[in-house]
Design brief:
The chain is mostly helical. It has a single domain, classed as Rossmann fold, CATH 3.40.50. The chain is built from 11 helices and 5 strands; from the N terminus they run ααβαααβαβββααααα.
């Protein structure tokens, strides 16, 4: 689970309903998506977290450089207090649930998820994120991607040629995260290193492996978790009445495609 998405989506939701704590919204989103994905008690749930200055900034100083300025303009959001409350929530989830919070200095959630799905290559791995960078990982047979975006709430359709995704992302001139253009071979190699989730630098992968290979067995201590009115929902994630299967998602996406075709034809 890509914690950065849940954190920021919850904070932006808070702007419209400030009576509801952003951390409360975050928990409801996490629980809701786990229930839709369909988890069993022996499944490994990893919450992947960004921590500190990304190692990618050492390769490209302009990597994600526009984000800080954008946050400064959002003066109605107390970012420091928000981040502190979400750090506390992470500590609580790590201490009182069977889930595993993984955060390593200079790492992004992308790194943890990238290595995790390759480390657990013999298990079905479901990535919960809206980040399109993860679509590279469709090249792995064990990977599925569930989009928690409110307008989707279903699995993404694997592309016909997932191996081409990385090349397309490198060729794309600029984005909010990648401002530096690709003009030379050196630029290309740097962009490849930054974007490639199929293989991370050796030292990065080694650090993640050290963290991920010894995940302790844990149990719920639900009474110690925040927001008592949500306590019953933690155990409810194992019920199967809300599960959205991959097959159902593909059927839903196919209906959307057919609807668009019809609208285009009629229009």
């Amino acid at each position: 689970m890509d914690y950065g998405y849940y954190l920021h989506a919850s904070i932006y939701a808070w702007r419209n309903r400030k009576m509801t704590p952003a951390t409360y919204t975050c928990i409801t989103m996490l629980l809701g998506d786990l229930r839709k994905v369909g988890v069993d008690r022996d499944d490994i749930v990893i919450i992947a977290v960004d921590k500190g200055r990304s190692w990618r900034k050492d390769k490209d100083s302009e990597y994600k450089s526009s984000r800080k300025a954008k946050k400064k303009k959002q003066k109605d959001i107390p970012w420091k207090d928000m981040y502190a409350s979400f750090d506390k929530l992470l500590d609580q989830l790590d201490a009182y649930t069977p889930w595993h919070v993984i955060e390593l200095w200079s790492m992004e959630a992308d790194d943890i998820i990238s290595y995790g799905v390759r480390y657990f290559k013999d298990k079905r791995c479901v990535i919960c994120s809206v980040d399109s960078d993860f679509e590279q990982l469709f090249a792995l047979d064990n990977v599925q991607i569930y989009s928690p975006h409110p307008k989707r709430k279903c699995y993404k359709e694997p592309p016909k040629n997932p191996a081409s995704i990385l090349a397309k992302k490198i060729q794309k001139e600029v984005s909010d995260d990648l401002i530096s253009p690709v003009l030379t071979d050196e630029d290309y190699n740097r962009r490849h290193l930054i974007i490639n989730l199929m293989k991370l630098p050796d030292d990065i992968e080694k650090r993640i492996e050290e963290q991920i290979k010894f995940l302790p067995t844990k149990e719920f201590e639900i009474n110690k978790l925040p927001f008592r009115n949500l306590h019953s929902r933690f155990e409810n994630i194992y019920e199967k009445d809300k599960v959205i299967t991959f097959e159902k998602s593909m059927q839903r996406l196919e209906r959307k495609k057919e609807k668009k075709k019809k609208e285009k034809k009629d229009g």
